[in-house]
Amino acid sequence: MGTLRALADIARKEDKKLYLVGGFVRDALRGTQSRDLDLVVSEEAAWFARRAACSLRGSYDPLDTAAQHSRVRTIADDGLPLVLDFSQCRGKNIVDDLRLRDFTVNAMAVSLDDYLNKQDWQGRICDPCDGKNDLAAGILRLTAEECLQDDPVRLLRAVRFLHKLSLRFDPESKEMLRRNAGFIGNALKGKLAIEFFKILSGSRAAESLRVLHEDLGILSALFAPFGAMAATKSNGEDLLTHGLYTCELLEEILLGNVVSFPEMLPKLSLHLQKDVVEQCPRFAYLKLACILHDVGKIDRRSGKSGQAARFFSYELAGEAYVAGLVKRLNLSSEEGKLLSVLVCNHSRPLYIGKEAEGLPARLRFFQQFRDSVPELVLLALANAAADRWADGKDLVTRLTGLLEQFFAGAAADLPEPTISAQDVMEFFKLPPARPVGQLLEAAYAAQLAGKVTRRSEALALISKLLEQAGRREREG
Length: 476
Known about the structure:
The radius of gyration is 27 Å and the shape is elongated. It is α+β, with helices and mostly antiparallel strands. 55% of the residues lie in helices and 11% in strands.
C-alpha cells in the first residue's frame, strides 16, 4: 500500500487523475494480488511515470513514446519486485479508454483514491462493458470486434486468458475470433512473440495451442508450416496433432504423471526455469520444440500411394522451418540456436546406450549438447510416450540414466572434439546420417583415451574404420 499511497500523493500534488485498470482490478475482484499494476493517467502520462520512477527509486522504460506508455520497476514495501505500467487516458475520459480495451473482464477501472480510502471501492468501479458480471459468470467476452483488428495480438491473448482465468468463450466472441484469425499476420513481431511465449510458459500450453488450432484456426495463420504439419500424416496421425500431444505429455512428465523420477524433478525444474531471454524460460522453448519436432517431415515424404509413408533426413530439414519461425517472431540468435538444436536432434537420445560403445556415445552427447541435454532427453521421453512407447519401456531407464549423469556433472570439463561432423562429411564425401555420428563417437573415445590429439589423427582413424567397414561389407 505504501507504493500506491506514494503514487496518490504525486497525483494530488500534480493535479492528475490516476486510475487502477485492467488486470489489477480483475484480479482484486477474484481475491488475488497482482505484482503488475496497470495505471491510467488523465494527462502527461510519460512525464508522470518518470516522476514516479524518481520518487520510488525505480527504473523507467518508455515502451511506446507515441502512446505515452511507460513501465516503472521498483521494490514494494514487502521487499518484492513491483511493475507499474502507466498509459495515457484515451478518448475524453476513463469510460472512453475502457471501451477501447480487449475483453470486458479487463475493461474495469477504479480511481486510486477510491481504492485506497473507500471500504466499498468495489461499488465504485467504472465498468462500462459489464465486466464484473462476466467475471462472476466465468465468461470471456470481447468489448468489440474492432479491437482484434486494432491489435491482432489479442487473438492470442484471448486463449491465454481463457485458461489463465478458467473462463469460457462467449459464443459471439468466439465467432469473432474465428472471423479475424487472418489478422494475426498484421501483428507487430515483438508483441506477437511476447504473447506467444506467455502461452508457452503457461501450465496448459498444449491445451491453449490446441484451441488456437482446432477451434479458432489461428495457429496456421500465425505460421503457415503449422498448417502444412496438420495436412501431413505419419503413422496415421497428422504431424501437428502429434506435436501438440507430445507437448501435452511433456507437461504431464514435468508434473510427475507419466514417468516417475521424483528425485529428479526439482533439479529439472531449476534448470528449465532459467531464462533464455528476459521472462522466457527454457521450458517454453522445449514445449515449442515438442510441437515442431517433426516439422521436417513436411517435405521429406516418400513412398507410393497406399503405402506407409517414410521420411528421410527430416530432422535436418526441420532447421529451415525453425529459421522461418525465428524470423516470423523476430527471435534472437540464442533463441533460434536452442530451438534448432532441439528440433534437429530430438532423436539423438534414443540411440544412446543402444550401441556397444555406449560410453563414448554418451560422452560425445554430453559434450556436444551440454546445457541442452535435459531438454533433449525430456523431448525424447515425451515423443516416445506420444508414440505409445514404441521403443520399449527400457527406453525410460536409459533416458533417465542420462539425466542422472548430467546432473552428476558428466557434461563438465569435457574437451572439445578435434573433428566435427562437417569435417567428416566433406573429407569422406558422406551424407548426413547416423553412421557419421558413430564415426565421431569412435574418434572422440580415442581422443579421451589420449590416442588422438589432432584433426589429422582423427581423420586417419576414421579412414581406417571406413576401410574396415568396407572390407566387412565385401566379405559379408
